[in-house]
Amino acid sequence: MLNRGYAYTTIISSKYHGQALLLHLASLYPHSTQEAWQQKLNNGEVTLNGVTAAGSESVTAGQTLVWNRPPWIEPDAPQHFEVLFDDPHLLAVNKPSGLPTLPGGGFMENTLLRLVQRQAPKANPVHRLGRATSGIVLFAKTPQAASTLFANWNTDRIQKIYRALAQNIAEHDAYEILTPIGLVPHPRLGQVWAAKPSGKPSKSLARVILRGESTTTFEVSLHSGRPHQIRIHLASVGHPLVGDPLYGVTGQPLENLPGLPGDGGYFLHAQFLRFQHPITGEQINLEAALPTGLCPTHE
Question: Are 124 and 91 contacting, i.e. CB atoms less than 8 angstroms apart?
């Protein structure tokens, strides 16, 4: 799909005051080299306070920097979802693996947000799932519903249960995982969320569902909402997800050129979501059917 392009806008912060624009762009968007950024500048894609930039300028705190990225062909992604719940305030869907929840990482139009908003223009996700993660995504259709759900999301008022296929055979039947999560170096991105002793407090409860010859299927309840929490937490106790291209057995990025957070290959599914309706007070119990790779017969 050829999208319409996108204007990436940032405000220059005081810590970058006086830095050369070309250097600033290369550090702000490390996916491209200085040479590549100079070509984009030469093409007139970058403006500073509304003026087309050359790259040699020194940036000033408070200036508005805009990269007008030309239209590009997005990677393919599934174009479907299953509706699990729909009323005037909420919409819950079962997202397929491979479809990003929100724009980013080269995706703008091929996202769950765009697909959902074609049917419900005012719907916005209360949370997100990683591109390769399947399962329940909850959308709010009204500001009141969104406000209540955001306030309750990382509390025990909302129960979130996932199914995960992990490497190695679990020694215990249940694990309380409290590994802190913070930003660590990544050779391709600069930094990525991972296990980090000085990171933010995090809590997951993992229960063994099935042991295979070399794998364990876990049911995981989230009690905090850190990025990639289940992938990191299970890896940190010696059970990285089968096929995970990013995290190794310590919950840190793999040593030999780790993949990107959005890369697929692993099995993780948001199976259950239980909460009180933010407007009616009704108890809502949602379930998204397991994908083939996580059904018990898979083992």
Answer: no
